[in-house]
Amino acid sequence: MYSPLIEQLISALRILPGVGPKSAQRMALQLLERDRQGALALAGALEQAAEHVRQCTRCRLLTEKPLCDLCEKTDRDDSKLCIAETPADVFALEQSGNYNGRYFVLLGKLSPIDGIGPSELGIDLLMQRLADEPIEEVIIATNLTMEGEATAFYIAERVKPLGIQVTRIAHGVPSGGELEYTDGGTIAHALLSRREI
Amino acid sequence: MYSPLIEQLISALRILPGVGPKSAQRMALQLLERDRQGALALAGALEQAAEHVRQCTRCRLLTEKPLCDLCEKTDRDDSKLCIAETPADVFALEQSGNYNGRYFVLLGKLSPIDGIGPSELGIDLLMQRLADEPIEEVIIATNLTMEGEATAFYIAERVKPLGIQVTRIAHGVPSGGELEYTDGGTIAHALLSRREI
Description:
The structure is a homodimer. Helices cover about 45% and strands about 15% of the residues of chain A.
């Protein structure tokens, strides 16, 4: 019942994650009723980003330059390489302020059912970096899901023969978490990874 | 920490209703990682809609033509005019399948604090239509909020002197609703508007 251009906008908005038919309708109408300038600005930002943003040639973070800001920095520890699934994960690791090494972003995780294998995750580029750079420790920070664990295991198997130390970030009860409300899998990890104090 | 074009996209996405910093980040990264075609399509749809969609010159519904589809239809009852706040409300009324008259869309409600008065709601155009068209009943379907009620009252006061019947849609317990879980305001309305059976 909306006009063709509005219907087209509503269906285009549905590609955004978490946006269903009702929210897409609300977004389209609100933009058209109240914020045309914002709509045009968003259109421009989408176009520019979609055309110019590429992967960093060294760590696969998204950037419009050949090398991303993190790779360009000269004050980072070149002997440590942290492997994460997504740019958002790298962002979270940076926010914690506890890591000063380099990164490698997989942009996914091993998932044969979706056709995602080692080449989609840039494992060749990773092996090339391990050969070229003075990396002494690889820290695997993939998520604690079945695919994340499989990816971590696969990478560990590939990296260990090079004589490079491979570590995995710890999994356990989160800070501020209470045992009573923590799921069994997390508690199992917390028990298995216990340390002397 | 993201590159400038990505930061620009994240902040542009925040103009969408209900999208905060975290969702905007997720949307931007997902589009760039997985759906560039979709991002470009969305940019095009936004641009086209923002540039070409205007208000229908008769009922103020959003459309890219001078007259909207509903106004162009010849099989509607010209003696009834339903006044709604937004295009989404008109959509809901149409979906109910119980109304065959014409519409007028306010695109808002009286709200002096936001600078929205009669002229922003197109009341002049409404009065012009009432003078030009054979309208016998005006059905006010603004929402049951303070501003919606004030708007309904204002329009009723303007229309009644013309000798046109003014009605308000009924408010009460929704179909399928249970009294136990219905708020007091709604129950008060349901009691006041009770009818003999």
